[in-house]
Amino acid sequence: MNTRHIARTARSTGLVAVAAAAALALTACQSGGTDAAAGPDKKDSTSASASTSGKGEDTSEVGTLSEKSEAGTGSPVSTEPLPDGSTAKIYELGSQHYRADLVDDGEVFASLETDEHDAGLDANDMFVVLTRGGRLNSWMGGGQTGPGTFDLAGGWKAEVTKTGTNGFRAEILGNEGAVEGTLTAKDHDAGVDANGVGIVLTAGGVISAHE
């Protein structure tokens, strides 16, 4: 595992990423209840409640930015290493409701919270998605800046358009260009798990995906 620590910017330090819990407003192929959008055949501290200073609008948004993360409830159900050398502590808060505190050197620098929707954020070019089922997907880099149409991991495509000040929308395209869902980020980052592929869209129009 890469143990290097990414320098926290002034904007990221100490913030709770209220990671905008973003819904891939999926069509029929949403998988039962926890992670997903249907698929084609086949540390800038931001938060979203989604929870850190993430960014996202739509029904996906579920949280606000705060300077200090609240502790999770009880003991974490799992602890996972992150690619920048930090750690994610995941807490179960209820049905399809999880929180992930991102911890570096003993301090929470961002949090993601789901509540019936997945959540995502970009923390200094480390992208993180937390699903409604409590599964975490994280990776470094791979961001592409919209507007534009981009190829994503897993065979997906995304058409990213600007939607006013501090807002972008991504239409997630499957086979033959069919729109399988949308992801909207305004003021907060948004994220979703699409059949095992994590996708994050930032309020600045950067989109990144990873299997």
List the helices and strands and how they pair.
Blueprint: E1 18-21, E2 48-49, E3 78-81, E4 87-94, E5 97-104, E6 107-113, E7 119-123, E8 126-130, E9 136-140, E10 144-145, E11 148-151, E12 157-162, E13 167-173, E14 179-186, E15 190-194, E16 197-201, E17 206-210
Parallel strand pairs: 1-2, 1-15
Antiparallel strand pairs: 3-4, 4-5, 5-6, 7-8, 8-9, 10-17, 11-12, 12-13, 13-14, 15-16, 16-17
Description:
- By secondary structure, the chain is mainly β.
- The chain is 0% helix and 43% strand.
- It is built from no helices and 17 strands.
- The strands form four sheets. It has a six-stranded mixed sheet with strand order 2-1-15-16-17-10, with no helix packed on it. Strands 3-4-5-6 form a four-stranded antiparallel sheet, with no helix packed on it. Strands 11-12-13-14 form a four-stranded antiparallel sheet, with no helix packed on it.
- β15 and β16 form a beta hairpin.
- The protein is globular.
- The two termini are 17 Å apart.
- The N terminus is likely disordered.
